[in-house]
Design brief:
- Chains A, B: Its cofactor is pyridoxal 5'-phosphate.
- Chains A, B: Pfam families: Aminotran_5 (PF00266).
- Chains A, B: This is Alanine--glyoxylate aminotransferase family protein.
- The structure is a homodimer of 363-residue chains.
- The first copy, chain A, has 363 residues and is of the alpha/beta class.
- Helices cover 44% and strands 15% of the residues of chain A.
- Chain A has two domains: 111 residues, Alpha-Beta Complex (Aspartate Aminotransferase, domain 1), CATH 3.90.1150.10; 242 residues, Type I PLP-dependent aspartate aminotransferase-like (Major domain) (Aspartate Aminotransferase, domain 2), CATH 3.40.640.10.
- In chain A, the strands form four sheets. Chain A has a seven-stranded mixed β-sheet with strand order 2-10-9-8-5-3-4, with helices on both faces. In chain A, strands 11-14-13 form a three-stranded antiparallel β-sheet, covered by helices on one side.
- The longest helix of chain A is centred in the C-terminal third of the chain and has 21 residues.
- At the A-B interface, helix 1, helix 3, helix 4 and helix 10 of A face helix 1, helix 3, helix 4 and helix 10 of B.
Amino acid sequence: MNKKILMTPGPTMVPEEVLEINGRQPMHHRTQEFYELFSGLNLNLKKIFKTKMEVMTLTASGTGAMEASVANLFSKGDKVLFATIGHFGERFYDIAKIYGLDAELLDFGWGNAVDLNVLEDKLKDGDYKALFITQNETSTGVTNDIKAAAETAGKYSIPVIVDAVSSLGGIPLEMDKWGVDVVITCSQKCFMSPPGLSFISLSERAWGMAEKSTLPKYYFDLKKARKGVMKEKPDTPYTPAVSTIMAAKRATDMLLSLGLDNVYKRQEDFGKKVRDYIKDIGLQLFPEECIASNLISAIKVPEDISASDIINYILEKHNILITGGQGRLKGKIIRIGHMGYVTEEMLEKTLNALKEAVLKLKK
Amino acid sequence: MNKKILMTPGPTMVPEEVLEINGRQPMHHRTQEFYELFSGLNLNLKKIFKTKMEVMTLTASGTGAMEASVANLFSKGDKVLFATIGHFGERFYDIAKIYGLDAELLDFGWGNAVDLNVLEDKLKDGDYKALFITQNETSTGVTNDIKAAAETAGKYSIPVIVDAVSSLGGIPLEMDKWGVDVVITCSQKCFMSPPGLSFISLSERAWGMAEKSTLPKYYFDLKKARKGVMKEKPDTPYTPAVSTIMAAKRATDMLLSLGLDNVYKRQEDFGKKVRDYIKDIGLQLFPEECIASNLISAIKVPEDISASDIINYILEKHNILITGGQGRLKGKIIRIGHMGYVTEEMLEKTLNALKEAVLKLKK
């Protein structure tokens, strides 16, 4: 088997049995078989989101669901805070600015995690309508402590909106228990499915905010999507990506039958394994180890080697795709994704390939 | 082979070879193989749209691209005209209202086509910034004459936005030659692909309008999407539905190798065949024959039979899915889709099943 292995921030590898379903004739979305499928998916989603609330499925990538959270909960001029630690946090902030929110950026710097004391100082004085925060920042390989952040925001009754695009189903996130108001994720990361779907859930408090929002939305109107989900024969307001829904149902079945706690544990092991390995071969992690992601590892590029040479070497010699840095980190880091459908064997192959690349390319 | 046959307004049947590709491991969207795939798809799309302009691919269903046309070209209060003949025309109007456009509805009634004289009277006095019109209204089985409508609007220099969601690639539409400013379509109708993608192209004039638009958009920002398409290594601003793009590339290859003129001719034959057949068995077409769609046939339900009984009979006895009426036509019509990947055999089976159902169910 010399198929390309994706060790990227997503799309990630899709298991053969999920691919097989994706290759079936799509169902019609106004049929009994679809209602049953979608009911099943919705139930799986609630279990993964750890919520009693409805989870809405949007035919759009994660960015679409991020936009949906802005357009559905807020109005022009609403004051909100973005605690950012990298590219995707900044994207979320950009969306809010475009919708005319009074958005404030609390930038902790690329490579850092959110500092809870700094955050608390801001929150207590700010009168914000919401806090936006990224759980796992794939651009820097850093994970924020969402439980603690939600607790902090909770002290001041500030709703919390979490971009869990690359993290949900890979590391713990308990929407209801932690008091998170909006959770956003997508199909092509820890969900082991092809790209094309995003998932979003709102707390009762968030639905209350949605009642007051005056921003325009149609395709991303979450009230309409919720209505579809709540039907006895649940459906979506517009034709969804049926094939991807079929695939995501199967993939979430797999995730749940593995057991979320086992998945979290495996991701912890993978994260530690990568960090130990790169130390052994003389490489350095980009962020501090205590905030490093168990889903994606960002590694500093040694001074005498170029990032693209490492990436190309691993791709050409081993048919494994890892990625480089985005934006200001371009050329400075390489990133190995190890979320979703990654086996021990894939991970070992990747690490061995990295070691080989570094040895060969060193001047 | 007793697989379910979809004779619906979409999702329509997907050919086996397209399904096979949809079942492959998704590519990563920032790789050479994706750039080549996407270049190829973009070239195919230009040929099908019959335009020299870029065609943008959105990960969203057709409604998303409809919203994109509104959010990208207009500003609050812009006066626009919607010539509607059914459900999907009204949906387009609803989108414009939500974005605060000064949208006027020129409703020709469900079952009718746009009357060009009435349209011209409106256009000449109205000072509209655009005319919105549906090419093929699947809710009623009626096709509008877009060439003539564009000519009429052209006399008054009014830009024309065409919802060709269910028609492009099935009946003629020449974007550049006819002077159409925006064309919108999707993957799951005449494009013979799974649902999840929509496609949109803008004329130079429409891009000029986009420069002035002040409505908020992020995920559906067409300027960003265009920038991606125009790159030497073309891509999309956000992770697209890669598997569906892989499938759509193959499906559009098939469409173009069949030859669009041959496809149009086959659709004409199919339309006529259905209309002749239903007359023979004593049923009546819902619209006048001269405006009837060659892509989907809406048939009046005989007074002594229920629509759902016919639909269920055909589904249960023959495993063929046809659909009923939407909204105000619920229970009054049945609809047979014959667009996209439909063979002579499928069509004949469906017509025979319909005849059988009507005979059996007659009281």
